[in-house]
Design goal:
Distance between the termini: 24 Å
Protein name: Sel1 repeat family protein
Structural class: mainly alpha
Number of helices: 5
Organism: Brucella ceti str. Cudo
Largest sheet: 2 strands, antiparallel
Strand order of the largest sheet: 1-2
InterPro entries: TPR-like_helical_dom_sf
Length: 117
């Protein structure tokens, strides 16, 4: 993670994306699957927490992908639930930029991921 990135400077940008049925965005052109596949469920918890935080940061600031607040919130929320305080602070910052429908979609995505894993 780049130490010069200030998460308080998250800017809301609308990426070119496909809309989901609930009106939220799905960034089909990103490398989501490659990132997900890099998450090894057998790694130690500290490494898992770092990966979750990095994924949330990636979508929050648009590092190598379009900004996606739903994905950012999802990954930061999962990391926060696992006890990562930095992820909790960042999740709250991202949530402050989201509409109610985006927040609902992000919470649903996090719940689905946690149920499956």
């Amino acid at each position: 993670m780049n130490g010069t990135t200030d998460p308080a400077v998250l800017k809301r940008q609308e990426p070119a994306s496909k809309e989901r049925p609930d009106g939220s965005r799905d960034l089909t052109g990103t490398r989501k699957m490659a990132q997900f596949q890099s998450f090894n469920h057998n790694e130690n918890p500290a490494a898992q927490d770092r990966i979750l935080l990095e994924m949330g940061m990636k979508y929050a600031i648009g590092r190598d992908c379009e900004i996606d607040v739903i994905e950012a919130h999802k990954w930061l929320n999962i990391a926060a639930i696992r006890g990562n305080q930095k992820a909790e602070r960042m999740r709250n910052q991202v949530a402050a930029t989201m509409s109610k429908s985006e927040l609902a979609a992000a919470l649903r995505c996090a719940r689905e991921w946690m149920t499956a894993h």
